[in-house]
Write a structure and sequence with these properties.
- Helices cover 47% and strands 14% of the residues.
- It is of the alpha/beta class.
- The chain has 2 domains: 230 residues, TIM Barrel, CATH 3.20.20.60; 49 residues, no CATH class.
- The strands form 2 sheets. Strands 3-2-1-9-8-7-6-5-4 form a 9-stranded parallel β-sheet. A two-stranded antiparallel sheet has the order 10-11.
- Helix 1 packs across helix 12, helix 1 crosses helix 13 and helix 12 packs across helix 13.
- The protein is globular, with a radius of gyration of 20 Å.
Length: 308
């Protein structure tokens, strides 16, 4: 049953995570003003105006200006805005953040992170921009992309290196390129790396966000992929097309059945506790403290998502 899987995939200390939920994050090419305007009418949990991979090098300056001009519009949607900027090694990282850091910006997403020192350099650069923008130091969050072998090995150190980090993003395309291996439909070539990212993110108390699914015209395949992501411990997934948002949101949200089953677990346990028992059963499954905590997390998440 689906609700059993979801209960077991929900962090028992869900409310300890800085971002209560971040299910869908929509990429929008930064050099396409009409796409940015159209995207503002959609409903992901976050917008990712992209200055990196979706923009050719010769168009970087134009994209930076376009994104800067459209940021206030996107911020006005009330969604989290997390532009993906160019990596430190490109030499244009600081130009990117100087053009976008402002009140209302939730954070930035940065690729090609390889060590905690990268995060330290990013954090210092953000502090300078925040000071110039007149906003409190430390306000701007960081979502680092874990997409190389070195980053996977150093993942927990990277994710625990700054209080600005709110989530980890796993990038399958760059990871397989770094490894010199081919992408497969069953994702077996990235299974280890994905698991490392989710475990390291949980240990660092940040969210884990899975790589985009590129077959955007195949909603059934996306659903299976997102459900697999959820079962590994990912909390959300990047979208490359607005049509993916609803499926991703549904896969990372409790269903009515999930919520009802969570309520049954809590009620059953409370009845057992009133009789002095520390565990009981429901539908042939043991119900003890960890199971109840997961059920409570489902109820809390459903309230935060306004499903209750």
């Amino acid at each position: 049953m689906r609700y059993t899987r979801i209960l077991y995939a929900t962090p028992s200390n869900y409310k300890d995570i800085d971002l209560e939920f971040l299910r869908s994050l929509l990429f929008v090419p930064g050099n396409q003003p009409r796409m940015l305007e159209k995207a503002s009418q959609t409903f992901p949990d976050a917008f990712i105006p992209d200055l990196e991979d979706s923009v050719a090098y010769d168009d970087k300056d134009e994209a930076r200006q376009v994104v800067s001009e459209h940021l206030d519009m996107l911020i006005g949607t009330g969604k989290k805005i997390v532009p993906r900027v160019n990596s430190l090694d490109t030499g244009i990282f600081e130009k990117d953040i100087e053009s976008i850091v402002r009140p209302g910006l939730y954070g930035i997403s940065v690729g090609k992170i390889s060590s905690p020192s990268d995060i330290g350099n990013i954090a210092m650069a953000l502090s300078r921009c925040e000071n110039r923008a007149g906003i409190q130091t430390g306000t701007t969050k960081i979502i680092p992309w874990i997409e190389t072998a070195k980053a996977v090995i150093d993942c927990h150190g990277i994710l625990s290196s700054s209080s600005r980090i709110c989530a980890a993003a796993f990038g399958a395309e760059d990871f397989t390129n770094d490894m010199g291996i081919e992408r497969r439909k069953d994702d077996r070539e990235i299974a280890y790396a994905r698991s490392v990212v989710t475990v390291a993110a949980r240990a660092a108390n940040v969210l884990a966000l899975d790589t985009p699914f590129f077959a955007f015209r195949d909603p059934e395949a996306l659903k299976l992929n997102a459900e697999d992501s959820r079962s590994l411990g990912f909390n959300g997934k990047f979208a490359i097309h607005p049509a993916q948002i609803q499926t991703i949101n549904e896969c990372f949200s409790p269903t009515k059945e999930d919520i009802e089953y969570a309520r049954q677990i809590i009620q059953t346990f409370e009845e057992a506790a009133a009789e002095g028992r520390g565990s009981t059963s429901l539908n042939g499954m043991v119900v003890d403290v960890p199971v109840v905590k997961r059920a409570e997390s489902v109820i809390t998440m459903a309230r935060d998502m306004e499903l209750l």
